[in-house]
Amino acid sequence: EVQLVESGGGLVQPGGSLRLSCAASGFTFSSYDMHWVRQATGKGLEWVSAIGTAGDTYYPGSVKGRFTISRENAKNSLYLQMNSLRAGDTAVYYCARAGTGGPLRGAFDIWGQGTMVTVSS
Amino acid sequence: EIVMTQSPATLSVSPGERATLSCRASQSVSSNLAWYQQKPGQAPRLLIYGASIRATGIPARFSGSGSGTEFTLTISILQSEDFAVYYCQQYNNWPPLTFGGGTKVEIK
After folding, report:
1. For chain B, what percent of residues have pLDDT higher than 70?
2. Does B89 contact A61 at a Cβ distance shorter than 8 Å?
3. What was the pLDDT predicted at A1?
4. Does B32 lie at the interface with A, CB-CB under 8 angstroms?
5. Which terminus of chain A is more solvent-facing, meaning fewer CB atoms within 10 Å of its CB: N or C?
6. Taking Cα atoms as reference points, which of B66, B95, B83 lies closest to residue A57?
7. Cβ separation of B36 and A45 shorter than 8 Å?
8. Closest chain B residue to A111 measured between Cα atoms?
9. CA of A74 to nearest chain B CA: how many angstroms apart?
10. 3-state SS class at A72
């Protein structure tokens, strides 16, 4: 079964750091671009970061310089290191697999169940 | 940044009726547009990609159309399990990848 399982969420103080993990199974992890998407309670979806199969990384301006996405293909794992956290980073964080090939590339065909990050004092 | 605008914010529909959801892009995204369904407490699920291609396992009552800046998701005969929030997402020009604000389909 194709599956993504996030972990590492929790309560952190403003200015603190947290590292999220995403364990992939059921597919050849190294062959797919991977992303993080977040969702604040009651709000919409916000793209957070992406990493390509070659290790190239991408971020929106809201997290650039504070968040770092990485992958460890040997462990079928995706990570998100979050530093200088703010109250506005409070959200459920999902890892998602981007489809491969043609029109599917860039759409997220597999999602994890999410992990909650709360930034509060 | 490409801004995605969905309308309406809430759509009240009776089971068995047709639902039509709209998504507009601030500039052309060609056909690089996806639709997702999200139910409370669950992760989003891919419904449509390439503006009109149903993802694996998605029922035929879901259909997508459009290209450029105007897109539509149609649910032909609403079932009870279709009441959810629907998001569009462009992946033509990124970073950043951007989502619409969502349309909630509720029971009338």
Report:
1. 100
2. no
3. 96
4. yes
5. N
6. B95
7. yes
8. B43
9. 26
10. strand
Tokens representing A98 are 């981007």
Chain A residues with CB within 8 Å of chain B CB: 35, 44-47, 50, 58-61, 94, 99, 102-109, 111-114
Q: Which two tokens stand for residue B90?
A: 């462009």
| pLDDT at site A105 | 86
Type of residue numbered B20: T
**pLDDT one-digit tens code per residue, B15-48:** 999 999 999 999 999 999 999 999 999 999 999 9
At position A81, the amino acid (one-letter code) is Q
| pLDDT value at B71 more than 90 | yes
**Chain B residues within 8 A of A60 when measuring between CB atoms:** 95-96
What one-character DSSP code corresponds to residue A14?
T
Q: Is A26 left (phi over 0), alpha (psi -120 to 50) or beta?
A: left
Per-chain mean pLDDT for chain B: 97
> What single string gives the DSSP state of each residue in B16-63?
TS-EEEEEEESS--TT-EEEEEE-TTS--EEEEETTTEEPTT--TTEE
Place of tokens 């959810």: B84
- Confirm if B63 and B52 have CB atoms less than 8 A apart: yes
Interface check for B68 against chain A (CB to CB < 8 A): the answer is no
CA distance A108 to B96: 14
Per-residue pLDDT of A58-106, as tens digits, reads 999 999 999 999 999 999 999 999 999 999 999 999 999 999 877 888 8
